[in-house]
Design a protein that fits this description.
452 residues; alpha+beta; Spore Coat Polysaccharide Biosynthesis Protein SpsA, Chain A; Jelly Rolls; 2 domains; 11 helices; elongated
């Protein structure tokens, strides 16, 4: 018998589902029930193949030929597989259970198991992008400022009366996979991650749910303890593809957002707070597999430690109407590929900046900065460049600045700006900025060093 299982529906998820599985396995889930509802069963089947077979398969895969029947798929699990696991949770593939201080579901649930049958985790919406090739989690650092009232529950299987649940399905505005309150499940005890009862939160939904979070200190305490990081889609292009093909769990909502021209506004509302919890945890888990070799700076044995690290910037330049992510694709200015174009691009503003987090302190020997080479005047915008380093992203040490301005090039003319640093230079963060009002855009940034 499994102890903690996740039940999920999957449509067009073959690219990211392995990382999603491995993440949740790393925090203690021991089985996954995946209901595929693609147009055909084999693409996802081949992706999940390594998890399906063997003496103790990690995944039970079921193909559901009618796309979008989420309630039917979840009820199928309850009827046919619920008895196989002690606890279960209904999660989307784009949802990641985030336990901030206890990265293990069994240890987290230990204080709740005696008195509660379901623990509700509120949702934190994360913005789509920036993207790190091959990983969703490494690129998710921007989120909304407030919790969403929607919850996902970890539930004791024995507490669910399937027949009673089925009889009450048509009576509620909130689907049962987003919380049990209000459904005909006598005796089921449901709380939030603080141990407060969730009884009554489905009344006049979502009014009572908002009131639950509005109590003094509750939202802040929940956010600091545990939540579900929700990534509705990874790129604007992916959203459009999903809407075209149908079967998205919030299809009507996102279709209305796109049709009304509000996509830019909605995404910006989800990119208010920098939250490195998921990215830092996952980077620590997979760091041994993400080591890159790079050409050292002249005469130096250190390597380019900037490759693939997290970046953020003061603003995002929109190349095309509605394409708000074009100017900020994490790793595109530190991915090892020099194009002569821009890897990141801010808007025109006073003192624009770009910051990279090396994840831990490094002894830095050199910094090499490649300018744009793709048009008259492009490179000149970086003449008033400043380079600073920091251990904590609060107190900054100036490494380089030119009051009169400096001209430097890039990959085309092989004349990047190269800064050699004193032997004792140690930092975790590096910030590039302009000392004037302009837009900051550069091709590639290389930082050479070794862990301190």
């Amino acid at each position: 018998m499994h102890k903690y299982a996740i039940v999920a529906t999957a449509r067009w998820e073959e690219q990211n589902i392995a990382e999603w599985i491995e993440y949740h396995r790393s925090i203690g889930f021991d089985h996954f029930y995946i209901y595929g509802h693609d147009n055909e069963p084999l693409t996802l089947y081949h992706t999940l193949f390594p998890y399906i077979f063997g003496p103790n398969p990690l995944v039970t895969y079921r193909y559901w030929p009618k796309a979008g029947q989420f309630g039917a798929m979840y009820l199928d699990f309850l009827r046919n597989h619920g008895h196989e696991t002690e606890w279960f949770g209904f999660f989307d593939i784009g949802e990641y259970l985030t336990l901030r201080n206890v990265h293990n579901i069994d240890r987290f649930m230990a204080p709740f198991r005696r008195d509660w049958d379901a623990v509700d985790f509120h949702t934190l919406n994360f913005a789509p992008g920036p993207n790190v090739p091959g990983s969703v989690l490494l690129g998710r650092i921007w989120r909304a400022a407030r919790l969403d009232v929607r919850v996902k529950s970890i539930t004791r299987s024995a507490a669910i009366d399937i027949a009673a649940l089925a009889r009450s399905l048509t009576q509620h505005a909130r689907p049962f996979w987003s919380g049990w309150d209000g459904y005909d499940l006598p005796g089921l005890r449901e709380c939030d991650v603080l141990g407060a009862s969730m009884a009554g939160t489905a009344a006049d939904y979502p009014k009572a749910a908002r009131e639950h979070l509005a109590a003094p200190g509750v939202e802040e305490a929940i956010t600091e303890k545990a939540a579900v990081a929700r990534i509705a889609f990874n790129t604007v292009e992916e959203l459009k593809r999903r809407l075209d093909h149908g079967g998205m769990i919030d299809h009507a909502y996102w279709q209305a957002v796109v049709d009304q021209g509000k996509l830019d506004e909605v995404i910006r509302s989800q990119a208010v707070v920098i939250d490195n919890t998921l990215a830092d945890y996952w980077r620590a888990m997979v760091a041994p597999t993400l080591e890159f070799y790079a050409e050292p700076a002249r005469g130096d044995a250190s390597v380019n430690v900037a490759l693939g690290k997290m970046t953020w910037q003061s603003s995002i330049y929109s190349v095309q109407q509605g394409d708000i992510l074009q100017g900020q694709v994490a790793g595109s200015a530190n991915n090892g590929r020099k194009t002569g174009h821009f890897g990141f691009h801010t808007t025109i503003e006073p003192k624009p900046w770009w910051v990279i987090d090396l994840r831990l302190p490094h002894r830095i020997s050199a910094i090499r900065i490649y300018n744009r080479c793709d048009g008259p005047g492009m490179a000149a915008r970086a003449r008033r460049l400043r380079v600073e380093i920091s251990q904590d992203s609060v107190n900054w040490q100036l490494l380089f600045a030119s009051e009169q301005g400096i001209d430097f090039g890039g990959i085309t003319d092989q004349s990047p700006l190269e800064l050699r640093t004193p032997a004792a230079t140690t930092a975790r963060y590096c910030k590039l900025s302009l000392d004037d009002t302009n837009c900051l855009h550069l091709d590639e940034v290389e930082i050479y060093g070794v862990p301190a």
